[in-house]
Design goal:
alpha+beta, 3 domains, four-stranded antiparallel beta sheet, 6 strands
């Protein structure tokens, strides 16, 4: 073989080797560690706040080389063939695919300003235009509630009766004070009785709900303090996306053949 042929062969082999290393950050025991893997790893670190520096590139290279060495050892020992490891790999692959599907869904299902406005108005309508500040005393029996109503009518302070007798841990210690809230925040029976009162008035008869028996006193009424659409846009957008994702999942399940 002539010197020219040998030099040409060496040049070709050198170019081939350079091409291989351009595609990989290392070759470990004959198996390449792809540069694309390193690029992905670096991008993940950058998204978490790190800067893409030569030091980060070096650390990533070392980490991936170490992982490759350990993976090869695990495979040499046959650990990748065990039922437990296979199951974990399947579950991890499934989780990655599900996350990718959800991310793709979020990208292709944008929430428009019209969507946000309609959702805002729907929620606003549920709140109504007024908020009520009420106190209540919650007890287990109707007779107990009637007895407390009689005591309050005879001069006992509502707040003191709430502190002594109410089984509502959230408001009892505060004299039954529920602060300002929209009627929709309460169970229907409570809401109906509360909104039927005048300021300073107390229910003449106990009000039954799923929680027990209530005595309700209306302290004040004010215009509803509802945040503007601009203030809640991020939360509304996230909520609507969540609903769409849930509907999408339900649609897929409804079409699936499950035996």
């Amino acid at each position: 073989m002539s010197r020219f042929t040998l030099r040409l062969l060496a040049l070709v082999l050198g170019l081939s080797s350079a091409s291989v290393f351009a595609q990989n950050i290392a070759i470990v025991n004959g198996r390449p560690v792809p540069k694309a893997r390193a690029d992905f790893f670096v991008s993940e670190q950058v998204q978490q706040g790190q800067s893409d520096t030569p030091e980060l590139q070096r650390m990533v290279r070392e980490e991936l080389i170490n992982r490759e060495i350990l993976q090869q050892e695990a495979e040499r020992r046959g650990l990748g063939s065990t039922a437990e490891v296979k199951q974990q790999i399947d579950l991890t692959r499934q989780a990655i695919l599900l996350r990718a599907l959800q991310q793709d869904f979020m990208k292709t299902n944008k929430i428009s300003d019209k969507d946000l406005s309609e959702e805002y108005n729907r929620i606003k309508a549920q709140f109504g235009d007024k908020e009520y500040r009420a106190r209540h005393i919650l007890v287990d029996t109707e007779d107990k509630a009637k007895s407390l109503i009689d005591q309050i009518k005879k001069g006992a302070k509502f707040e003191d009766m709430a502190k002594q007798h109410s089984k509502d841990p959230g408001s009892g210690a505060n004299g039954g004070d529920l602060d300002f809230a929209a009627p929709g925040n309460f169970v229907p029976e409570f809401s109906k009785a509360m909104t039927g009162l005048q300021k300073g008035q107390m229910t003449d008869a106990p009000v039954k709900s799923q929680f027990g028996w209530h005595i309700i006193k209306l302290e004040d009424i004010r215009e509803a303090q509802i945040p503007s659409l601009d203030e809640v846009k991020p939360q509304l957008s996230q909520s609507l996306l969540g609903k769409r994702w849930a509907d999408y999942q339900k649609g897929l399940k409804d079409k699936a053949v499950i035996k």
